[in-house]
Design a protein that fits this description.
Shape: globular
Structural class: alpha+beta
Largest sheet: 6 strands, mixed
Number of helices: 14
Strand content: 25-35%
Number of strands: 24
Radius of gyration: 30 Å
Helix content: 40-55%
């Protein structure tokens, strides 16, 4: 089955499982015309055909050997590398790009990387002869930011002691004193040449995105650090720049391992250098004009190509191809133009945010901008919120920044806060206007092009206070993510996450920290988490199980009414949890934190 049919069949099967769980009986169809019987796993297409639901393993490997040859066939069917930092620009570093809809209706699912090698076994010879060696890589995107690269370098950085450095220095000095011929002979003796009848590495198409936002420029003095960051972010960010690297092929040649690596590196380096103009013309500050022109060209091609492909199969497919062609042309023209404006304003917004001198504001803005909306209305709503919050933060910062600075650094901090407040009074509302324009045009682009953003496969691992790496727990990771996003991370700086109970799936949560209990709900339109109520443990009297869940009883509070009468009011909060095991476990966690007082 092709990619389109496989995806639709899986979607119908998941719906069947949901309907069966609630004992609902209905009919299911493939392409709205072929009936599917999931009970007996039969597809009625021209005739009854048996269905077998299976899956592609992440890595597939096969090797055959005989006295005369060795065959190796390996596949990496799908791979995705996520950015696990909490403060990020791009949530996904590497992921395959799905094929266009027209291709998905005619081809089967292909592996991301496929390698095939056939080696002749030559008796009484040390030379390895490869009859056939090929590798094919599908189109993919590669998105990195400077914070991710810095964290990666810190993780793999090896600390060299003074003694090791001295030994390495002496070895280098000795190699300089030796004649060059000795080194060449040594390397030649160590490496054995292999013979390649046919070596082919397929062409590579990469969508590259890079950002310097959030980079560390603290080594630079004073205001120069902020200016370098602001200008650097504005002038160096690129998004979805396409590099097309031609195939590498060699026939009937001898290579050592080092020579082969050198040839491949030189080939792809040369290919990349020839396309440096793509990198320059793909800068966000210019609106990626190269991508806009290539998109227009692709839209015009699809307008003629898609109907032609459909006409070969039949009149119905011709109409479908015509619709796909018109949609592609519309998406690449309207969506491309809106995307260009969105990128220009987005780059300006990043620069303005860097010039506010407010790291907390920059971090909140990054988290807000990195949450890509799923629908057009959601994109417009979030852009409007950015506009309003830009004015609110700018005006309120005039008062709050000096107070916060005085609390942290005294008189010096007060005057720093006054400066930050005055700059933010101008820069933050301006950044809000620019972000509103960027988000609105971005929503238009996504709606026109029908793009689906790639999301993380799982939330970042939660590391406990003891810094011990434990087996990954999805519940802990998702709970910690919700905790860090409640009111834009208001409690993440003061509290330690303990537990998160999902009361209503994907909407209502009870979050337990080491200081308080928080009842939060998710706003689906803005994608934010707001607090319904919160209580510190010293204000809580007891946790009591009930038939419907649990009850949180607060301590009596003497409240005066009209400044004269006092009431002994007891507040009770009900949490509805049907599963007794989940309820009892939650009460146990709450009581353990309550007893620590």
């Amino acid at each position: 089955m092709n990619i389109h049919e496989t995806a639709e069949l899986e979607e119908q099967y998941q719906q069947y499982l949901v309907d069966r769980s609630v004992q609902q009986v209905k009919k299911y169809y493939l392409d709205s015309k072929h009936e599917i019987d999931f009970g007996n796993m039969i597809l009625k297409k021209n005739r009854e055909r048996e269905l077998h639901r299976t899956f592609y393993p992440g890595v597939w490997f096969k090797m055959n050997t005989s006295p005369y040859q060795m065959q190796l066939h390996a596949k990496i069917n799908k791979i995705q590398i996520d950015n696990q930092l909490n403060d990020y620009i791009f949530p996904v570093v590497l992921a395959p790009i799905p094929p266009p809809k027209s291709v998905a209706t005619t081809t089967v699912l292909k592996p991301f990387i496929e390698i095939s090698v056939v080696q002749w076994v030559v008796p009484n010879s040390t030379v390895k002869q490869y009859k056939y060696a090929t590798m094919l890589i599908q189109e993919f995107h590669f998105k990195v930011d400077l914070m991710f690269l810095t964290a990666l370098a810190d993780m793999f950085a090896a600390k060299v002691s003074d003694e090791q450095a001295a030994k390495l220095f002496n070895v280098n000095v000795e190699s300089i004193e030796k004649p060059l011929s000795d080194l060449v002979e040594t390397h030649s003796a160590q490496e054995q040449k292999n013979f390649y009848d046919n070596l082919h590495l397929g062409p590579i198409k990469i969508h590259v995105s890079f950002s310097m936002a959030g980079s560390d420029t603290t080594a630079l003095p004073g205001i120069l650090s902020t200016l370098v960051q602001g200008v650097g972010v504005t002038l160096t960010d690129v998004n979805d720049v396409v590099f097309r690297l031609a195939f590498f092929e060699r026939e009937y040649q001898f290579f050592t391992q080092q020579q082969l690596t050198s040839e491949i590196t030189a080939h792809y380096t040369g290919q990349a250098l020839k396309q440096l103009y793509v990198l320059v013309l793909g800068l966000d500050v210019l609106g990626n004009p190269y991508g806009l022109v290539v998109g227009l060209k692709k839209g015009v091609e699809d307008l003629f190509y898609e109907p032609f492909q459909g006409a070969i199969q039949g009149p119905g497919e011709f109409a479908q191809g015509l619709a796909l062609g018109v949609k592609s042309l519309f998406g690449h023209t309207v969506g491309g133009a809106a995307g260009a404006v969105s990128k220009i304003t987005g780059a300006m917004g990043k620069g303005l945010a860097a010039l506010t001198f407010d790291e907390e504001y920059q971090k909140k803005r990054r988290l807000h901008m990195n949450k890509k909306p799923q629908t057009f209305s959601e994109g417009i709503a979030r852009s409007g919120k950015s506009l309003v919050m830009g004015f609110v933060d700018g005006v309120s910062g005039v008062v709050t920044k000096p107070v916060a600075g005085a609390r942290e650094e005294g008189v010096e901090g007060f005057f720093k806060g006054v400066g930050k407040g005055m700059i933010g009074f101008v820069a933050q509302p301006t950044a809000g206007v620019v972000d509103f324009a960027s988000g609105s045009f971005g929503a238009v682009r996504r709606a026109a092009e029908g793009q689906n953003e790639v999301s993380r496969l799982r939330a970042p691992r939660y590391v406990h206070q003891d810094n011990v790496i434990r087996p990954y727990c999805r519940a802990e990771a998702e709970g910690n993510r919700v905790f860090k996003e409640i009111e834009k991370g208001k409690y993440a700086g003061t509290d330690v996450f303990i537990h998160c109970e999902e009361v209503v799936p994907k909407h209502e949560f009870l979050v337990v920290s080491n200081h308080r209990v928080i009842h939060a709900t998710k706003n689906d339109l803005f994608g934010t988490y707001s607090v319904q109520w919160k209580y510190r443990y010293e204000n809580i009297d007891a946790f009591t199980p009930t038939d419907k869940g649990l009850e949180i009883r607060l301590k009596k509070q003497n409240k005066k009414v009209m400044g004269m009468f006092s009431t002994n009011e007891v507040v009770r909060k009900q949490i509805f949890i049907k599963d007794p095991k989940r309820r009892d476990r939650l009460i146990e966690i709450l009581e353990s934190q309550h007893k620590k007082l």
